[in-house]
Design goal:
The chain has one domain: Rossmann fold, CATH 3.40.50.720. The protein is 53% helix and 15% strand. The chain contains ten helices and seven strands. The chain has a seven-stranded parallel sheet with strand order 3-2-1-4-5-6-7, with helices on both faces. Strand 5, helix 5 and strand 6 form a beta-alpha-beta unit. One of its GO terms (molecular function) is oxidoreductase activity.
Length: 261
Amino acid sequence: MKLKNKRVVITGASSGLGRELAILCAARGAHIIMLARSITKMKTLKDEIEQLGGRAVYESLDITDAEQVHLTFQAILEKFKRIDLLINCAGVGYFLPLTETNTEEIEQMIAVNVRGLIYCTREAAQAMEAQKCGSIVMIASLAGIITTPKSVVYGATKHAVIGFANGVRMELEKAGVHVTVVNPGPIRTPFMNNADPTGTYRKRVDRFMLDPRRTAERILHAVNTNKRTLNLPWYMGIGSKLYQIVPSVFERVCGPFLRMK
């Protein structure tokens, strides 16, 4: 997919990886539709994109509200007539032991990471089926493949995303719609402020953390090449494959690393 003049919808666009993706897509000539809860941050980003010669609009959206998602996507289609690329980037996580994770935190992770992603994908998929083309990116996580202590609920939601994406891919392939799943390791973004408020985990894995701009570039390259799955960084992708083949051995050998949270 060449992005020039394409309509690109990005959830969670106000900060972090979503913000970087919006900037890069705009730089490649796409018309960006930013969706997030923070109007202030999106307005600032819109101004930045336009100062660089790009095009962007934004809409405040709570993706956990199915009716609001439906109405927002209908408004997008009425204005732009099509959606060429949806990037499901909105996400939330709390790195806590299961016994210390409260109900509100559990519900929020499931609502944003799973239900919200499904709602947005359903709306975009309907439009793309009618168009007979399009691409959908789902930002999952390596935690969805290798779920580690203190991220069991978060990992479960990302495991759900991976399973959902695999089924949706087969449903939409005859309509010419491509689905890419991205499984990144920890990224140096504001996501960590909620997930790891003490900063302990960030300090332990700082040298392994991904740069958000470079990650965004890799994601767009994956879209351009119709890549099915992107694991980042590459060596963690190899680790995930070894885990699927010999999980008990992998846990025993890599135990100290898996317990860094």
